[in-house]
Amino acid sequence: MIKDEINTITQELPEGVRLVAVSKYHPEEAIMEAYEAGQRIFGESHVQELMHKHEQLPADIEWHFIGHLQTNKVKYLAPFVALIHAVDSPRLLAEIDKQGTKCHRRIPCLLQLHVAREETKFGLTTDQAEALLESGEWADAQGVEIRGIMCMATNTDDEEQIAREFETARQFFLHARATYFKGREQQFCECSWGMSDDYPIALRHGSTLVRIGSKIFEQRQYT
Ligand SMILES: *Cc1c(COP(=O)(O)O)cnc(C)c1O
Question: Is the CB of 210 under 6 A from ligand 1?
Fold first, then answer.
């Protein structure tokens, strides 16, 4: 049952770590089952689907956008999105700033780091992320607020590989916080990594937000 999965997962999360229930492709009834178990943070990766669910479902749900976001769609999410996880270009960040300013919101977002071996995954290299932070342009932006780092590990059974990738992200996060967020550490505090198959590893490498979908909503057998 969805409710049991939510309870099992949230009980094993260390203090300070939050669950993003990834509900993409799953119907509103499934989300409501998780909601009734107390879950309030849901993650979606398609703009249309998220807008529809946001309209239909309870107003106290915190909607996170976790997928690759096209700049021309930021405006649809700007009024309500609680966290944009996967900012992968200065251009996208600039558009979030613009749309957030229009809505009189500083939209929280994370920089997506490309740490996986797969070429197909999106994200900034550590050099690109460093350059973006170093530019300092975003420190006083009115419409956007950088809250931390997000990454996806390689889809592999090699747990050491996955651990190395999460650790790369964690080291970058610690470096960025110490270098660019001195005195504002509370603003830059989120590490979004860990999915159904690798979140136990992510928890050992500093994750503060785990994004779990299939384990909750697809009821596969996990060992
Ligand atoms: C789908 C998705 C998840 C959840 O993956 P599961 O393996 O179903 O837990 C997490 N993060 C992102 C970015 C996703 O697109």
Answer: no
Q: Which of 24, 12, 77 has the alpha carbon at shortest distance from 214?
A: 24
Quote the ligand 1 centre to 174 CA distance (angstroms).
Answer: 24
* 26 Cβ inside 6 Å of ligand 1: no
Residue 141 has phi, psi (to 5 degrees) of: -60, 145
What atom in ligand 1 is closest to the CA of residue 195?
9
Tens of pLDDT, residue by residue over 143-202, are: 999 999 999 999 999 999 999 999 999 999 999 999 999 999 999 999 999 999 999 999
Which CATH topology does 2-217 take? TIM Barrel (3.20.20)
C-alpha distances in Å from residue 197, one per residue of 1, 168, 194, 221: 18, 19, 8, 12
Provide the whole-model pTM: 0.96
166 CA to centre of ligand 1 in angstroms: 15
The answer for residues whose C-beta is within 8 angstroms of residue 37's C-beta and 6 or more apart is 2, 3, 6, 7
Ligand 1 binding pocket includes 66 (Cβ within 6 Å): yes
Ligand 1 nearest-atom number relative to CA 85: 13
Taking the domains of the chain in order of start, what are their residue ranges? 2-217
pLDDT digits (tens, 9 = 90+) for 65-103: 999 999 999 999 999 999 999 999 999 999 999 999 999
> Is residue 192 within 6 Å of ligand 1 at its C-beta?
no
